[in-house]
Amino acid sequence: ESLFQNIPLAEPDKIFHLTATYVQDKFPQKVNLGVGAYRDNDGNPWILPVVRKAEQIIINDPNTNHEYLQITGLPTFRTASAKLILGVDSPAIKENRVSTCQSISGTGANHLGFLFLSRFYRKDVPVLISNPTWVNHKDIVRSVGLEFREYAYYNPKTNGLDIDGFLEALNDAPNGSIVLLHACAHNPTGVDPSQEQWCKIADVIGAKNHFPFFDCAYQGFASGDLDKDAWAVRHFVQRGFELLICQSYSKNFGLYGQRAGCLTVVSKNADAAIKIESQLARLQRAEISNPPAYGARIVSLVLNDPQLHAEWVEDLRTMSYRIIEMRKQLYDKLIELRTPGTWNHILEQIGMFSYTGLRTSQVKVLIQKYHIYLTDNGRISMAGLSTKNIDYFAKSLDDVVR
Ligand code: PLP
């Protein structure tokens, strides 16, 4: 008998499991709306043209090698990442109160960020997370020994934000709690606070001495405008908060499997920033020694070259505008079909995902009868829709809500 005979069998990851089921399905019109990765109008993964170009430059550079990066990663990548999220004229950057560490994409940034807080912040306060949130947040928080508590976020009656419940939960939490916020394009709901609502959220976080922890996985991908998608983070920085930001280049560069990301900490002064960065390096050393180079090189090259940067913005618009177009087409078709219910939220929600409001029982029918795959909370990936399958999806959705 094995020493591990009696350990429980872990459940498979829901989303990866859903994709595996989709792949096995032989039905010709099958649709995958589960996976959180961009697809072009033919349903294929898309390598951004600017990424292709950068790859060629890197491959042909005689100075490229496969040596280790520094523990905290590629310096040009880290500096460019901080500028991208904070803005080139950020006072925090000018005052040298920013610490950065390259991470294993957004997931790794979240992990390193919470690990850092678990060691150097407080252990007696919860991490406040939105209800619902990205499926991995709870496990990441738990994995470093912190506790979480949920705050109200999504209002199923309006398919929009429950701002009153949100503010109330922030107020009710112990002073100094860590507040996990989605910088833009909230996953899984696609519901973001307005700028006015962000100001109210910042007021309460300030009054309660909470610590803002931003997860930013969709900058530029959400609206097609890098500055607009960074507005909330920059607003908090402007108001003088110390905070932490996780950046992922999975979606906005399409570098999913390359694991390019960055953790940035904004603090009060340069002295603290140096100490923070030294501790991030120490934690990183024990976890992964040093981060992967390939994706970071691509991102660094593009962000630091004005011409390539401009081409990247074009690619971002290609992706975000296609998704916005799919929202419009889906909405129009549901109106045309006179599908019962209101569907404005499809237009109002932003980013990769939409919370349709479908119930688990309706999702089941979509999967079993129509071979349309989505998570049982009714979340759909807009990127899985195309001009080729949108009619089929709209009609199937219409059928299950009738
Ligand atoms: N955070 C949020 C909110 C996400 O939606 C995602 C990806 O779906 C991530 C983080 C991390 O993704 P990755 O580790 O691929 O960058």
TrEMBL record:
Keyword Transferase attributed: yes
Chemical reaction(s) catalysed: L-aspartate + 2-oxoglutarate = oxaloacetate + L-glutamate
Transmembrane segments: none
Cofactor: pyridoxal 5'-phosphate
Enzyme Commission no: 2.6.1.1
CDD domains on file: AAT_like (cd00609)
InterPro entries per the UniProt record, alphabetical: Aminotransferase_I/II_large, Asp_trans, NHTrfase_class1_PyrdxlP-BS, PyrdxlP-dep_Trfase, PyrdxlP-dep_Trfase_major, PyrdxlP-dep_Trfase_small
Isomerase recorded as keyword: no
Cellular component, GO, one term: cytosol
Domain of life: Eukaryota
Domain Aminotransferase class I/classII large: 29-397
One example of a Gene Ontology biological process annotation: aspartate biosynthetic process
Keywords: Aminotransferase, Pyridoxal phosphate, Transferase
Molecular functions (GO terms): L-aspartate:2-oxoglutarate aminotransferase activity; pyridoxal phosphate binding
Family as reported in the entry's similarity comment: Belongs to the class-I pyridoxal-phosphate-dependent aminotransferase family.
Cross-referenced PANTHER family: ASPARTATE AMINOTRANSFERASE, GLUTAMATE OXALOACETATE TRANSAMINASE 1, ISOFORM B
Subunit structure, interactors included: Homodimer.
Miscellaneous remark of the record: In eukaryotes there are cytoplasmic, mitochondrial and chloroplastic isozymes.
Protein name: Aspartate aminotransferase
Lineage of the organism: Eukaryota, Fungi, Fungi incertae sedis, Mucoromycota, Glomeromycotina
